Amino acid sequence: MATETLTATSYPTAYETSGSIYGTRYQSAIGKGSDTSAVSGNDYASGGSSSKAYIYYSFDFDAIPDSATIDSVECAVKGHAENTSRSTCNVQLYVGTSTAKGSSSKFTSTSAQTLTLTTGTWTVAEVKDMRLRFEIGYYGGLINGATVTVTYTFDATKWRITISNSTSVAVTTSDAEVYDGESATITAASLDGITVTDNGTDVTSQFTAVYPETSASTVLGTYALVSGSFNSGESWFEGIVGNGADTTDTTTSNYYSGGSGTIAVFTYDMGITIPSNAEVTRLWCEVSGHAESTSNSNEYMCAQLISGSTDLTDELNFKSVGTSNTVQTLEATTLPTVAQLAAMKLQCRLGYYGGAINGATAHVEYEVPGATIDHYEYTITNIAADHTLVVSAGSSGPTLYVKQGSAWVQVTTAYRKVNGSWQQVALDQAFTSGTNYRRAD
Amino acid sequence: MANNQYVNQVAVNGTTIIDLTADTVTAATLAQGYTAHDATGAPVTGTLSFVTYYVSTSAPTSSDGSDGDIWLVTA
To answer: How far apart are CA A131 and CA A10, in angstroms?
Structure first.
């Protein structure tokens, strides 16, 4: 294990308030804890005549790895009170807006002073939700700024993804911290003209295009008895809202059956709404349940997806599966239309010997003709070694080389200065014919 | 005898010591602001302009270069 100890520092980045506040100067009090020039002693904010108000300043510590251990939190706050004897002018660190950390400190001077807060112990999640609470009464005060420094230790072997991006293509990780055996995904708005290498191997072709919302699922909805009656009452079936992975809701000794010589038919709503122009490419349903008997001729504990009078899947009788809870998959034999999918139901038939349904989850995959690509994804499946993802101008796009000494060196980015500002330009737009160029000394 | 405004050739005792007649410099091929004499002996002031480009391994800062300049970042 390779551990590293690092520090992260943040100043207030935003604020939220609670209660009525007089004065607005606090809204821009986002300086550092060492600031002395931002606020004069005449500036202050105060609460109501008989009520206190609170200003919660937040910080940005998102870069701290989730696996880190917080060693210390230090907070320096600079501010002043409106009145040395009458002001309520207290500061304290909080997690969110309800959990206090450390102790409250009070500004006791009408001139700017720096308070060093006691901070207590913190977790990473708490640090990322840190607030500096400023409590003010009828006589209040003001905060010039604050500095919070967090020292943390983490296992560097779990911090594996490095991205080097020399293009203007937006690339992000879905999870910047990746653990052994897990995967990471990077997204890009476009792959046009870029090459992505993973530890030196070109993986550009391994990116897959992702379209907006191409799958959906649902679990059991409203129950309805369609025909027949139950031998043991129906209330238990009415309450089933589990998903298809549930195998714990019902014990194998817990089963229900239809009336003598009859079959009870009941349904659960499982409608799924997808775009009106979508085309369903796959539909399946995971159903968890068991049969009361595997041999009795009156054993029916059947499940089937239907829509109106159309059977979307074959009917499964748990009699053929067993008396222990299992999860079975119903695969669609008829792909529904959008309207049929919205009206889809799980139909159950229960014989004199029955069983139980624990829950069900229906899944649908679909395509939307003409949909534009939302982003591309690349999943790292081998996390046994650190990964360095390099996104650069690729062979499929324009390339530009300059000769350095005796070697040609590839240009990754080009800029042009316009009205005093450097603006990035495409490599094939950097130079134009009819213009003379001279390399700077 | 024509009174040529410019001199492009000088001979002393039959020996040519200055001869501009084969020179190819023109205003368009001479860097802007520089001066010379063309094949006729007429003075020319260069009008050829350049855009400066820089090559670096890092991005430019606001104080670098002038409007119109190009900055290339290499790997």
So the answer is: 11
Q: Determine contact, residues A222/A384, Cβ cutoff 8 Å.
A: no
Contacts of B67 in chain A (CB under 8 A): 417-420
Token pair for A40? 């004069």
pTM above 0.80, yes or no: no
Which is higher by pLDDT, A403 or A313?
Answer: A313
ipTM: 0.81
Rounded to a whole number of angstroms, the CA Rg of chain B reads: 21
Return the pLDDT at A232.
Answer: 59
Other beta carbons less than 10 A from residue B16's beta carbon: 10
Beta strands at A301-307 and A310-311: parallel, antiparallel or unpaired: antiparallel
Total CB pairs under 8 A between chain A and B = 85
**List of chain A residues whose C-beta atoms are within 8 Å of the C-beta of residue B48:** 436
Check if the beta carbon of residue A132 is closer than 8 Å to that of residue A17. no
The answer to whether the Cα torsion of A305, A310, A312, A316 is positive or negative is: positive
Bigger pLDDT: A387 or A233? A387
Contacts of A439 (CB under 8 A, 6+ apart): B52, B53, B54, B55
- Return the minimum-mean-pLDDT range out of A185-189, A194-198, A421-425: A185-189
Q: What are A53's two structure tokens?
A: 């108000």
- Contact of A203 with A196, CB cutoff 8 Å: yes
